[in-house]
Amino acid sequence: xxxxxxxxxxxxxxxxxVNRSVNGKRLPINSNGGYRLRSMAKEAAQEIEDQIKHGTYxxxxxxxxxxxxxxWFHTFYEGKKSAANDNHYRSALKKIxxxxxxxxxxxxxxxxxxxxxxxxxxxxxxxTVLKAHVYIAKCFHEAYHFGxxxxxxxxxxSLTGDTSLEKDESHxxxxxxxxxxxxxxxxxxxxxxxxxxxxxxxMANTGMRFEEADGLTWDCIDFDNATIKIDKTWNYxxxxxxxxxxxxxxxxxxxxxxxxxxxxLRKLKLVNDKRKxxxxxxxxxxxxxxxxxxxxxxxxxxxxxxxxxICKKLGIISEGQQSYTSHALxxxxxxxxxxxxxxxxxxxKRLGHENVTTTYKTYVHVLKEVSARNDSxxxxxVTSLINGQK
Length: 390
Hints:
This protein has 390 residues and is mostly helical. It contains 14 helices and eight strands.
């Protein structure tokens, strides 16, 4: 027989405990706490009682959180998307081992998890806290859904973070005039012996992620229809290096490429074909951007170093100023399209975003500027109508 749940308050938060009566003794079935309201604790306890009543209650797992998370990641998510995505899960696992050492996942309460966010937020920016929360909470959500734990301790927690640690966002987006200068420079300084400028130019003109551009093979280029097919990436962060999946299903796409960029690639392919005639074993992976001396793909560090060098040479950044990274090429490409009033759905598909909401959140500052510009233009249009101007 199951007794009525015991609801109690401790340290200004509400807790519950559900017991089972066996031979006149009370044996605990489940308990948890950290609720702001008594009604929330009562609701959680009632749910467990209902499960027991209908025979659907499952005993919580006795695995430690780090062990559970590791097995969950390996089983359901490892290798399913990009290498960068896998690294986010591994980073989350390190945090779990640090902040929840030897703690059973079933024993983690809402207050335990909030304390983790509070501590982690003391030394990290809000965006960093949010990212950690997303990858950790996902495990809790699924564990709760499938009955491994009786409550989801991440429910209605408060995200934290030190705003003074937020990074300057200006290095993520280039000034459009500087962007134009960079493109013109790389276009006039192409050398097949150093293909870094090629990948900078292609990324700037397509908005591809670095790992997508690094994983391009010659069969992805449709010269007749002026398109590039993006269906894989190059894993450059973890051995064994090689081809990997795209970030998500939406990242697998075919995008239009302009005639000038297509012409650059056509000439680069001729160089590649000539080298293969001399050395049949040259470029066995059929990649676009490889170092001629060893046939290996361009590294992200190598690209960022070259990009920084060019920007300093052109006066785009000064000595001591934070350098742009390869991702700035992608962000600025998208910003350029939005500033030119290209439809956000088109931009979202071109970037390979999972949905338009992602695009909106990333470029909300650009969209606000475009909206303000359109409002100003509307004022002029209405004024001309009223005044009878043509």
